[in-house]
């Protein structure tokens, strides 16, 4: 069956931190907290992120407060003086929130725009499903992603996260609601591309979508588990186009 809709994850799929996140955090921390070891910041950031995702899923209804908690725990875990941090956190948090709301914090991958344009030229719709907060809307605008990349479905806005099939259902319903003269798109006519095995690959499959796991060489993050041989893997977005060409009924 022909693919009519391709949805993409955002972070590590269409966009990537302009510099590693722990490096950007350490640079912002330094004027307030003194130099902190970037490796310690990196380790502490991942611990803080995991903790907050477990304690307050979907950003706990307040992404600014959620990220402030991540920033605080990251700095403390990396060795910051608690008293100094308490005095300066209200200055540090807005700086990091602003940086990661624009091209200051992120850049697009070299293949992102060319593949989106190639899909558009083939008459295939493209959209986003991401476990991100609403700042990603300003990031995509600042990076000049095309207006036809719609809808942008974000977990903070919807109150549900991947791998729940519900967030993919929301996406497909919005796409179908916007169709004018075409027949509705079925889940079997959808492909989702993302870098996380559980959230992206298995989440999309649970909603009836086809799925491709994006495993870019040299990525600044590691897969959560060994990739089973049965999983369809792409190493860049051009391989997504190759996969689609190989499908029956193309």
From TrEMBL:
Transmembrane segments: none annotated. GO terms for cellular component: nucleus. It comes from the Eukaryota. It holds the Pfam family Hydrolase. Gene3D superfamilies: HAD superfamily/HAD-like, Haloacid dehalogenase-like hydrolase. One of its GO terms (molecular function) is phosphatase activity. InterPro entries: HAD-like_hydrolase_domain, HAD-like_sf, HAD-SF_hydro_IA, HAD-SF_hydro_IA_REG-2-like_cap, HAD_sf. Keywords: Hydrolase. PANTHER family: HALOACID DEHALOGENASE-LIKE HYDROLASE DOMAIN-CONTAINING PROTEIN 3, PTHR46191. This is Hydrolase C7D4.05. It comes from Favolaschia claudopus. The lineage of its organism: Eukaryota, Fungi, Dikarya, Basidiomycota, Agaricomycotina.
């Amino acid at each position: 069956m022909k693919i009519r809709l391709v949805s993409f994850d955002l972070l590590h799929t269409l966009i990537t931190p302009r510099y590693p996140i722990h490096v950007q955090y350490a640079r912002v921390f330094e004027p307030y907290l003194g130099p902190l070891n970037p490796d310690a910041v990196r380790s502490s950031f991942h611990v803080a992120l995991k903790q907050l995702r477990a304690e307050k899923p979907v950003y706990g209804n307040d992404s600014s407060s959620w990220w402030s908690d991540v920033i605080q725990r990251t700095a403390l875990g990396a060795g910051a003086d608690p008293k100094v941090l308490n005095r300066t956190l209200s200055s540090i948090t807005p700086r990091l929130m602003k940086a990661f709301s624009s091209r200051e914090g992120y850049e697009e991958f070299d293949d992102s725009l060319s593949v989106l344009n190639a899909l558009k030229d083939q008459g295939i719709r493209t959209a986003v499903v991401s476990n991100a907060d609403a700042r990603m809307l300003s990031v995509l605008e600042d990076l000049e992603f095309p207006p036809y990349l719609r809808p942008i479905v974000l977990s903070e806005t919807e109150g549900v996260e991947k791998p729940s099939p519900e967030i993919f259902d929301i996406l497909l319903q919005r796409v179908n609601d916007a169709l004018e003269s075409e027949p509705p798109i079925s889940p079997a006519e959808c492909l989702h591309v993302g870098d996380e095995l559980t959230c992206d690959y298995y989440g999309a499959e649970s909603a009836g979508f086809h799925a491709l796991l994006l495993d870019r060489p040299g990525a600044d993050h590691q897969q959560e588990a060994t990739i089973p041989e049965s999983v369809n893997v792409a190493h860049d977005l051009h391989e997504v186009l190759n996969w689609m060409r190989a499908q029956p009924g193309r």
